[in-house]
Amino acid sequence: MNKQATLLGTGMYPLPRAARLVGAELRTVRRWLKGYSWKYGDGRKASGPLWPLEYADDEEFGDEQVLGFHDLLELRTVARFVERGVSLKVIRATIDVARETLGDYPLHSRRFVTDGKKIFLEAVERAGEDPRLLDVRRQQFAMDAVIRPSLLEGIEYGADAHALRWFPVPKKRLVVLDPLVQFGEPIVVEGGVPTDTLAAAFQAEGQDVERVARLYRVKPQEVKAAVAFEQQLAA
What we know:
By secondary structure, the chain is mostly helical. It is 48% helix and 11% strand.
């Protein structure tokens, strides 16, 4: 069945763009979301994707590894876990345990903040790792340094505890990803212009911030924020 109608308000991020937005390597993200196999003895073993993508059943995008907004935020949390040294085996178990109680895309649900510690410890046991190896200090580190920042910092939640928008530079909140606007691409908050458009204009206009601001009817600080954001993605 064609599900093109779901494009509205879902967000759309090709895999390379999604990897840049969460600060992870493309090859690694592809393995997480597409799965992979490896040689084992005389045969091969396989590991499936961490979760089915929002566009998995779409006739046009299902085979192209396109992420929706919820996929992107889920990927963001996974990337944070990996950065902090949590094994992919435990992450996979965490997603499985969390989905049983919180539903699809649980890692960026506000409920995961309160239930996350219990879910994480159950996932460690399910993954076959000894929870006694996770002492109090390490548990606290995993929860405070990974889960809470990933869920709360820069995320605007709705009444149903699910994420509505993501401010990737939370201290300034000048750039936002909103699945209801521009297919979820990063835009400046007040002007609504995509950050890549402003960054390209900045280069084309001789790096004249004031001129770009006048051309697109946005504030100079929004131009600066867009340029800085796109430079960070490129780096």
